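=== RUN LOG ===
request id: a7f3
mode: sequence -> structure
chains: 1
length: 192
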Amino acid sequence: MERRFPVSDSEIVLVLGDLTRERTDAIANAANSGLLGGGGVDGAIHRAAGPRLLEACREVKRTLPGGRLPTGEAVLTPGFDLAARFVVHCVGPVYAREGRQAPRLLARCYSNALRLCVEHGLDSVAFPSISTGVYGYPVDEAAPVALEAVREHLQRERRPARVRFVLFDTATLRAYQQAADAVLTHRLTSKP
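=== RESULT ===
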């Protein structure tokens, strides 16, 4: 079951599913700063994309200061064996380490990923719940930050046309649905 929320000329979609099977123009990877794969979503994307993704990430690393992508930043690679044409690698905050900066850094992940989609003419992107796995960001706190960042971008840029949140389990989907009811539905129905 999908829930859809119109924002400007675009829409945000919430769905339970497997991000690696998405047929959007791009999928976002909850990457680590080393860009060399890992566990959770990152590992699943690397396995599904095949070994060429790791090689592409190594090439990107060579262009980064110190070979690391800073928290809140994003880079684009081809999707290789994925259904999606591209992967946007985003480094989310480690919740316990970042403290009060965590919401700002998490919002930057989504904003920078969407900026790359616009720059490359991509009409659709699918996100996981960034930082809510091993990085320890509580999903009930992360969901409104993510949705607000996407809403703000779409109201400003009106692209990409479709932003999907493809969530791995029902608890995460429920948290995003509750956040969407507060952040998206309330904002759409309330008068300024």
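=== NOTES ===
The first helix runs from residue 40 to 49.
The domain at 3-189 is CATH 3.40.220.10 (Leucine Aminopeptidase, subunit E; domain 1).
=== END ===
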